[in-house]
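Q: Please design a sequence for this.
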């Protein structure tokens, strides 16, 4: 299939690479043109001078950009350029309102729009093991499904336009609570004089087990946060979530509290630290070694 991919960040670049390896003809666009050229040289695809250039004649266009405004700009460029009856698949974590607007805009031009945020982080993108939460018309989602499987381990169609983004919000709400609980648990263990490795061995096979525990406990214990899903990104996602909650009447007391904790991490200079850096905030409050700037 002739495909365009717009946005070659830590997620988009490996996802687009998987599409090439799956046998598709892929053209890419990135605002930093040098990044698109390097990607094209590495993977054998084409680098477009503009998003419209990359999308010209494409049956499917994938977006993985920064925010609602970025999606709007990209959509305005790619919709007129792509093939009739083509599908835009948006992997950006954006608002449900935008997704609904984009789906309507696409239909007026005889195209389709699928909001398809992902979970699994950079590691999942690189290994092709992302989980996709898709919102949109069934026909469009099912046409896009086999293409998205190039970088996915699971694709769940949630419902109509915007439901993929709403599900990603649920994902972030759950993560925020788990990471804060993990940070407090490890903080308590250290103050109680317990060996973090032995505590992990004791509790990681029981009811306390989680992906965050399996993948972040040891790095948190070592004060390492310079990797993973950045605090800035999590705050963007929680901002979208809390805004949606105000509209639908949800009470998200814990999510709102953790969002403020992340604001404190930002004030510590942790904008690009992994979300597990909530522990660093607790260390600062008590003056422990966890307040030390993170290592690699």
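A: Design:
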């Amino acid at each position: 299939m002739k495909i365009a991919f717009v946005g070659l960040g830590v997620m988009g670049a490996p996802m687009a690479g998987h599409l090439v390896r799956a046998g598709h003809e892929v053209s890419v666009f990135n605002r930093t043109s040098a990044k698109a050229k390097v990607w094209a040289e590495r993977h054998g695809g084409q680098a477009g001078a503009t998003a419209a250039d990359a999308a010209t004649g494409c049956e499917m266009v994938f977006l993985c950009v920064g925010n609602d405004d970025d999606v709007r700009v990209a959509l305005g460029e790619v919709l007129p350029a792509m093939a009739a009856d083509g599908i835009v698949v948006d992997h950006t974590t954006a608002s449900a309102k935008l997704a609904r607007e984009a789906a309507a805009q696409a239909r007026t031009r005889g195209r389709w729009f699928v909001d398809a945020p992902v979970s699994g982080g950079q590691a999942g993108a690189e290994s092709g093991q992302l989980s996709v939460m898709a919102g949109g018309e069934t026909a469009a989602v099912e046409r896009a499904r086999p293409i998205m499987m190039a970088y996915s381990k699971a694709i769940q169609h949630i419902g109509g336009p915007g439901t993929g983004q709403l599900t990603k919000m649920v994902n972030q709400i759950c993560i925020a609570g788990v990471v804060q609980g993990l940070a407090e648990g490890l903080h308590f263990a250290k103050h109680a004089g317990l060996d973090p490795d032995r505590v992990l061995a004791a509790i990681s096979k029981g009811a306390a087990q989680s992906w965050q525990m399996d993948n972040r406990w040891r790095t948190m214990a070592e004060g390492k946060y310079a990797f993973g899903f950045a605090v800035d990104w999590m705050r963007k996602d929680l901002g979208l979530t809390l805004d949606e909650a105000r509209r639908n009447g949800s009470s998200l007391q814990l999510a709102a509290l953790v969002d403020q904790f992340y604001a404190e991490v930002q004030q510590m200079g942790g904008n690009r630290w992994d979300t597990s850096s909530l522990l660093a905030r607790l260390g600062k409050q008590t003056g422990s070694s966890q307040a030390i700037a993170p290592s690699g």
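Q: Thanks. Anything notable?
A: The chain has two domains: 2-160, 166-291. Strands lie at 2-6, 25-29, 46-47, 60-63, 87-90, 112-115, 118-119, 130-135, 152-159.
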